[in-house]
Amino acid sequence: MQIDFKKVDYVYKQNTPLASRALHDINLTIASEKFTAIIGHTGSGKSTLLQHLNGLLTPTSGAVEVGDETIIANQKNKALKKIRQKVGIVFQFPEYQLFEETVEKDICFGPMNYGVTREKAIEKARYYLNMVGMDESYLTRSPFELSGGQMRRVAIAGILAMEPEVLVLDEPTAGLDPFGSREIMDIFSSMHQGGKMTTILVTHNMEDAAKFADEIVVMEKGIVIQKGAPEVIFSSADELERIGLKLPQTIQFQKMFEKQSGIGLSKLHLNEADLVAEICTLVEGMKVC
Ligand code: ADP
Ligand code: MG
Fold it and tell me: Which of 41, 81, 210, 259 could form a disulfide with 244 if both were Cys (CB 3.0 to 4.6 A apart)?
């Protein structure tokens, strides 16, 4: 589902002495069925932007088009219900939003709220719990007796069970260890590849942005300052450094390798496996010589 921001401004606490503008004249198209990463320094407006995708915040001025629906200022909740069914948001630390007494009830809550029968919702709960790497024995457990990582997975399963057309992820791996982070990102990546979903990821992790995104949006102080393919966004460190971001480590390594060896590689590599493969081919060639 395509999303278009048209001249969107957002001001927190408008008409008070504390008013602060968090989004400035955002004109942005997020392509249907693509994986888009949004990067930017803390406070640049990423979470504010995401909350416009299902009308949790409505623009102070301008409009957000989500598929056939349009969100404008002060939209009534009724009109937003349709959009909320199609756009699932995994907020930062989603485990804080668990509230039911069992894992099953928590995952079933969203689908049942949108008219799915209890039987069907339980089927989905099993399926999506498995998808996030937990077996059925957890269904009857209280979410509050699980580990932090398991709670995060249950909360994610609850969003996935809604089977959204647009999946929005606001730093979904924050606070997880590297192994847990990788598992969670692999789940989102395989879901994205397996379906027709539009995925939008806000991340501090440049490796993930490089590895998973078709397109990257760069934000600074409430403005979209760049949008493009990862190869373009990560072609130079200067602009990113200016706004407090770094190149992915794989690309830093490639640039250092090219500088010190004097050998230019065929292209900018966005993941370790591709980089290692090209360097191995080079080394093999040298052995023959
Ligand atoms: P990011 O997700 O990129 O860290 P945010 O969208 O959370 O950025 O914040 C953008 C700006 O809006 C920041 O200056 C932040 O302080 C401000 N802001 C965020 N939430 C609120 C709020 N509830 N009330 C007032 N200002 C807010
Ligand atoms: Mg944020």
Answer: 41
